[in-house]
């Protein structure tokens, strides 16, 4: 069963009631789609077609209303420096998980851009709750996180896909993300020729193969 969820904040419009993502019995995995800056929970719902068969999903709305359109997970700094609102967004996202997902269910965060940052934040704060991580056209916070030392030892699986023509993520952030992923995860990195700040059919097929392998 595929379910759509909205993460509510005080200024968010009311969401329609939805059943609990774990359903009548706990699932082993739950894919959690995390959209990018200025979008909403509907943006990545189509990625459900690329999940391994039988993996349920939830698509979560970011807590901050964008000043012009959609929502964002945290305030976007011009220099991409760490923001205190990233910590707040991480705490808010975990609060949603704790309230809606069985404690025995492993999350599979799938994030795009800002959402990719949030996917890595989940991994870097509670890695024991993560089955596998997918970061699409994203980067990582340079601020140390609670589980970084543990991740250097355990090296959990992570897929990182990006386009070689991405005009949004600065080169320095790409380099920093590459170094962090290499030293903290069992990384599958893919660079797609001619792709900008987006996703492609080829990339999503690679994601499906990655998840099918890692989720067994």
Which keywords apply here?
alpha/beta; 5 helices; two-stranded antiparallel ribbon; 216 residues
Protein model, in words:
The chain is of the alpha/beta class and 216 residues long. It has a single domain (29-215), classed as Rossmann fold. Helices cover 30% and strands 18% of the residues. It has 5 helices and 8 strands; from the N terminus they run ββββαβαβαβαβα. The strands form 2 sheets. Strands 2-1-5-6-7-8 form a 6-stranded parallel sheet, sandwiched between helices. A two-stranded antiparallel ribbon has the order 3-4. α1 packs across α2. The longest helix is centred in the middle third of the chain and has 17 residues, at 84-100.
Number of strands: 8
Major sheet characteristics: 6 strands, parallel
What's the pLDDT, averaged over the residues? 87
Strand content: 15-25%
CATH architecture: 3-Layer(aba) Sandwich
Number of domains: 1
The CATH class, by name, is: Alpha Beta
User: Which structural class best describes the helix and strand composition?
Assistant: alpha/beta
Strand order of the biggest β-sheet: 2-1-5-6-7-8
Describe the structure concisely for a colleague.
This protein has helices at 84-100, 114-125, 148-154, 171-184, 201-215, and strands at 29-34, 57-60, 64-65, 71-72, 106-112, 133-136, 157-163, 186-192. With 216 residues, it is α/β, with parallel strands linked by helices. The protein has one domain: Rossmann fold, CATH 3.40.50.1820.
